[in-house]
Amino acid sequence: xxxxxxxxxxxxxxxxxxxxxxxxxxxxxxxxxxxxxxxxxxxxxxxxxxxxxxxxxxxxxxxxxxxxxxxxxxxxxxxxxxxxxxxxxxxxxxxxxxxxxxxxxxxxxxxxxxxxxxxxxxxxxxxxxxxxxxxxxxxxxxxxxxxxxxxxxxxxxxxxxxxxxxxxxxxxxxxxxxxxxxxxxxxxxxxxxxxxxxxxxxxxxxxxxxxxxxxxxxxxxxxxxxxxxxxxxxxxxxxxxxxxxxxxxxxxxxxxxxxxxxxxxxxxxxxxxxxxxxxxxxxxxxxxxxxxxxxxxxxxxxxxxxxxxxxxxxxxxxxxx
Length: 321
Ligand SMILES: *[C@@H]1O[C@H](CO)[C@@H](O)[C@H](O)[C@H]1NC(C)=O
Hints:
Mean pLDDT: 83
Shape: globular
Bound molecules: 2-acetamido-2-deoxy-beta-D-glucopyranose
Radius of gyration: 26 Å
Keywords: Membrane, Transmembrane, Transmembrane helix
Organism: Citrus clementina
Protein name: DUF1868 domain-containing protein
CATH class of the largest domain: Alpha Beta
Number of domains: 2
Strand content: 25-35%
Transmembrane segments: 21-40
């Protein structure tokens, strides 16, 4: 009896020992796996791009952009037209705090940005922006009397990278700003002009009408952003956009279309307007982008709302295109 119970007790010890070892191995594995996973994620955040190699290194940049645009195109159906829900009571426009009606015209309310936002944007010349702007106005004006703001066609731009933005302000002295501008100029010298084509127009759930572009040749936006990140080491870690995106905003809808159906039909009506714009301008003509701008925006959304700003323009000087 004694020996039997001793044997059982030994076996119990052996079992509990094995269990402990197993548990320790299991915990180690879980910890290792989590750290490994975190390390992977960190490295993909720290090195968002080196040319075509990205955090999704098996996906080419053009494909990554197309998937992003697919997702953005679903935003209006997924989230509904939020810009219509804010202000059902009166002129919904007035409820948006960045616009007002002055002499019957939509007028932006300029608010000082403190500190000024410092944005790097690619510039789309009026040669390409004016025909787009005309088409946008032709299709949307008749339906959005006084509840639409059109982007100034002299200021069509693609946001690339912020040295400071409203979410993570990075104050800078005049000397530091000069140094940033010099660094950006050096980046521009290495960039090749982009030949691009309008992939599609999208209306977001917040009412922004966006042009989403694909790159035919030239330096990819992923690479441009990576170079700017290196050149501007103090810039906010978290930027505002997906590094693959190449988009311009065409207009902002601020309220209900006139004499349009309500409910789900209204959403369909909006889709139809976007579709007819797409039919007119999508894929129509290649555009060439050959300037990088370093912009100090003294007013909130100065580039979008014709606010006060200081622009430094740098040509893209690589000669391979
Ligand atoms: C559009 O932008 C240009 C260039 O900044 C400016 O001269 C013009 O006044 C702006 N147009 C409007 C309507 O604000």
